Amino acid sequence: MVDQAIQQWCQAHWDELRGAITQRGLGGLIARDGAAAAAQVADELNLGTGHDREGFDPLIRAWSMIAGRALDMGSGLIGCPLCYVQRHHDECQQPNCLKPLPDDWITGCVESLRLYAQDLGLVSRDG
Question: Model's pTM, two decimal places?
Answer without folding.
Answer: 0.85
